[in-house]
Design brief:
heterodimer, A: mainly beta, 6-stranded mixed beta sheet, 5-stranded antiparallel beta sheet, 54% strand, B: mainly beta, 7-stranded mixed beta sheet, 4-stranded antiparallel beta sheet
């Protein structure tokens, strides 16, 4: 039973356009959400996070939106760059000790 | 480089052998996590240390798995009598209590069990 779901395995976007990656969750007790980027043969790299008491957090080209009523969050990247091509994981802080629960990831390809 | 480091980066072993991985967290990070990632999946939590104390273990951590963090610094993850299903990327992450919630991941150790 997946508590964090990323339903799009892949996404292809033209350079300069907006990339929107989506994530759904089932547990309303999650209080913190994070996005990680992962290149092949490397560990996940933290991108941006959002607390459940907020609905938006912005950091440069990256913005995360949280819709608690829909149990949905999204990551917007604008403008998209070829270097953004990677697998993006959505994660929720779920355990009592802060362990993260990850989705399966979305592979983003940004074409020049 | 002051990031999380993991050794070895790759390990190939035969079924039934024991393997041990090492994680060196960011200095002064007192929280350390182990995750496992298989193909097409996101990382899955295995176990958690606060300083030297192992405070939580996932049901994924069978009796063949053991983890230690003897002095509250580096950690080891040992798998005994490896099985082909143990083939995965083993990731270590660390964070400092009260300093935010993002976990910093190492590059991982890729285990292949033949």
């Amino acid at each position: 039973d997946q508590q964090v779901k990323q339903n799009s395995p892949s996404l292809s976007v033209q350079e300069g356009r907006i990339s929107i990656l989506n994530c759904d969750y089932t547990n309303s007790m999650f209080d913190y959400f994070l996005w990680y980027k992962k290149y092949p043969a490397e560990g996940p790299t933290f991108l941006i996070s959002i607390s459940s008491i907020k609905d938006k957090n912005e950091d440069g080209r990256f913005t995360v939106f949280l819709n608690k009523s829909a149990k949905h969050l999204s990551l917007h990247i604008v403008p998209s760059q070829p270097g953004d091509s990677a697998v993006y994981f959505c994660a929720a802080r779920g355990g009592s000790q802060g362990n993260l629960i990850f989705g399966k990831g979305t592979k983003l390809s940004v074409k020049p | 480089d002051t990031g999380v480091s993991q050794n070895p980066r790759h390990k190939i072993t035969k079924r039934g052998q024991n393997v041990t991985f090492r994680c060196d967290p960011i200095s002064e990070h007192n929280r350390l996590y182990w995750y496992r990632q298989t193909l097409g999946q996101g990382p899955e939590f295995l176990t958690y240390f606060q300083n030297e104390a192992q405070l939580e273990k996932s049901r994924l951590l069978s009796d063949r798995f053991s983890a230690e963090r003897p002095k509250g610094s580096f950690s080891t993850l040992e798998i005994q009598r490896t099985e082909q299903g143990d083939s995965a990327m083993y990731l270590c992450a660390s964070t400092l209590t009260l300093a935010g919630d993002e976990q910093f991941f190492g590059p991982g150790t890729r285990l292949t069990v033949l």
